[in-house]
Design a protein that fits this description.
heterodimer, A: mainly alpha, globular, B: mainly alpha, 12 helices, about 0% strand
Chain lengths: ~325, ~325
């Protein structure tokens, strides 16, 4: 007699991302045949760790002893700041390389099948279209695991460094005005900034995963939209590049606009460059803190929602396009 | 006969590139390994000679006995091997960790034997680091001789040695100053011990760590990558961890001693709690002694633990689904 299904342990990994799934297995094994690709996939993590480790060691050895000689604050604060910016720079370079690698690896996933005329054969199986696409998608992510782990470790290290660095900044802010600290505690003004900071840390930490999934989604749409592998790689890379440029322009424009309106004009109406704000009353410091924190919080949530929404939209479009192939 | 001699002469005239290509991968690897020692020595000698002949000599009169040329020689004799040995140690660290991955493929039966063979085969890298450290030690001895004796001309002013000497002299006025002497001598002994035994202990440590880590991946080609990655991650997080712990300690110390600008100054209270004879130099010396002792102990003890754990894991068999 069979045991009731309720007693079976619930699987965290979906079927299409399991090594037993035929499409997933085929896609993973196909990529292992190329030694160059294998070395590139496996070698990403050691390269990231070696660069970060060496740069951290050199920066710490150069800055910490010399600055610590003057005082603790500048010694550790300076070292933390230097380490944080060095790690940001490494993340930027590695992130760009990882983005290109992911797009080039993911782009031939569907177009390759179409070009080799095995797509229709695959569609004759009992596997649904969604399952085929998601299994291929999971295989690409699994193949980029080494880079993803490297980027996540880098994010973790920079997050901890940034949090301790922020503690030094907060200390230096309240060092000159202890009444501000008491007011923050008494009137519970620290709650909203803390929530915003926590959400920002979460957003920052989750970026490698989101970016990798987003890159793969772009590449999959390019793959479904083209009938040859070379064309899909080209479309994928162009799409990624366009998204980079567009997001940089949009973010810089929005951040500059918000700073200009809220900080330069609204928070200080008597010296505001826009005349409209001259007649407005001077807002209380608590109101300024609340509005600025809320704006940052909403901005982060909007960016997060936009990223997740884009991924869902791109995967949906991929499925719709693949159905017509 | 003529044909034979002609063939021999052709063989002898074969370009090096072709001869190199005909060698097996194993022999090539062996040549590169053995080449570590002459490469380390020749590169340090070349750098040393370059600096000796091309370094600009500062002839400014500082008001005390000062010989820039001797100082340059001695400083260069320490700095160049120090940088080279740091780089060589870093390369050796992950190279030996990757070698550790080769010790597990035979299972627990041949694990100990494979570890010994691998250690002997890769002894060249720690030996090269050892020679560089010996050169550095020689430079340090040279500097101390210049500073303390008149063998190489007038004595030379060296900041750190002068600071240590002044601290030792100051401590003589306070009770318990012998502890400082003991601490300084202990630090010097541990430093020399670390310099000389460090490369071999480090190689053994990395080999056993590489072995332990490589018992985890399912596929054999993943083993060296995993071992190298783990070793590099450990190095990175050790540096960052020290900075994090130090920064948090500094923050706690600052919060206790100097919380706000307009708050009462507690520094005098805290300073009173710490004996006033404690000199900054001795705090550094004590911290260095502590870190070096921990490092030395870790490099001696941890390989035994890692090897035992790796053996235990191998006795249970490699992970399920392992592909050799």
């Amino acid at each position: 007699m069979e045991k009731p299904s309720a007693s079976k342990p619930r699987k965290l990994v979906p079927d299409w991302a399991d090594s037993g799934h035929p499409v997933f297995h085929l896609e993973v094994e196909r990529r292992k045949q190329s030694r160059v690709l294998l070395a590139m996939q496996q070698g990403c993590l050691p390269v990231i760790l070696a660069c970060t480790g060496l740069i951290s060691l050199v920066l710490t050895a150069l800055i910490l002893p010399t600055q610590l000689y003057w005082d603790i604050e500048s010694g550790f604060g300076g070292t933390l700041a230097a380490l944080f910016f060095a790690m940001l720079l490494i993340q930027l370079i590695v992130g760009a390389v990882a983005g290109v690698l992911t797009v080039t690896q993911a782009s031939p996933a569907i177009s390759g099948e179409v070009e080799l005329q095995s797509w229709h054969l695959l569609r004759t199986t009992t596997l649904s279209l969604k399952e085929i696409i998601f299994a291929k998608f999971a295989a690409v992510i699994q193949q980029s695991r080494s880079t993803l782990i490297g980027l996540m470790l880098l994010r973790f290290a920079s997050t901890i460094t940034g949090i301790i660095g922020t503690a030094y900044i907060v200390r230096s802010i309240f060092y000159w005005e202890s009444s501000g600290w008491e007011k923050m505690i008494d009137e519970w003004l620290w709650v909203l900034p803390l929530i915003t900071y926590s959400i920002f840390v979460f957003w920052y930490f989750a970026q490698p995963i989101i970016q990798m999934v987003l890159n793969s989604s772009i590449a999959f749409l390019a793959s479904a939209a083209s009938c040859t592998r070379s064309r899909s790689v080209a479309f994928g890379l162009v799409g990624r590049l366009m998204l980079w440029v567009l997001s940089i322009l949009l973010n810089v424009g929005l951040i500059y606009g918000l700073i200009y309106i809220l900080i330069i004009n609204w928070a200080d109406p008597s010296y505001a460059p826009i005349e409209f704000f001259h007649d407005l009353p001077q807002p209380e410091p608590e109101v300024v803190i609340f509005v600025l924190t809320m704006t940052i919080l909403l901005y982060i949530l909007a960016v997060l929602a936009l990223q997740v929404g884009s991924i869902a939209l791109l995967l949906n479009l991929t499925q719709r396009r693949a159905r017509k192939l | 006969m003529d044909h034979e001699s002609e063939a021999n002469s052709k063989q002898a005239k074969k370009p090096i590139g072709r001869r190199w290509r005909r060698l097996s991968r194993r022999r090539k690897r062996r040549i590169v390994q053995i080449g570590c020692i002459p490469l380390a020595l020749v590169s340090s000698l070349c750098l040393w000679l370059t600096v000796v002949f091309f370094a600009e000599i500062d002839n400014y009169n500082y008001g005390y006995s000062y010989d820039e040329r001797l100082r340059t020689f001695a400083g260069v004799a320490i700095i160049i091997p120090a940088i080279l040995q740091l780089l060589a140690t870093w390369f050796m660290t992950w190279q030996v960790a990757a070698v550790g991955a080769r010790t597990v493929s035979g299972g627990d039966q041949t694990f100990g034997l494979r570890q010994r063979v691998m250690f002997r085969r890769w002894i060249v890298s720690p030996l090269a680091v050892f020679l560089l450290r010996l050169l550095m030690l020689g430079g340090m001895v040279f500097l101390v001789l210049i500073y303390t004796t008149r063998i190489f001309g007038p004595t030379v002013y060296v900041d750190i040695l002068d600071t240590i000497e002044r601290s030792l002299a100051n401590s003589a006025y306070y009770p318990g100053f012998r502890l400082y002497y003991v601490l300084t001598i202990y630090t010097a002994v541990v430093t020399v011990l670390m310099l000389l035994t460090g490369p071999f202990l480090r190689a053994r440590y990395n080999l056993s760590l590489g072995s332990l880590v490589s018992t985890y991946p399912r596929r054999s080609y993943q083993r060296p990558w995993t071992a190298v990655s783990f070793r590099l991650a450990l190095g990175m997080f050790t540096t960052l961890g020290l900075v994090w712990i130090g920064s948090l300690g500094g923050l706690v110390y600052l919060s206790a001693v100097d919380p706000f600008y307009d708050s009462p100054d507690y520094s005098s209270l805290v300073n009173r709690a710490i004996p006033s004879i404690v000199d900054d130099v001795f705090i550094y010396v004590a911290l260095t002694a502590l870190l070096l002792t921990l490092n030395l102990l870790g490099q001696v003890v941890l390989p035994f633990i890692y090897t035992a754990l790796a053996k235990k894991r191998l006795r249970r068999g490699l992970p399920k689904g392992t592909v050799q």
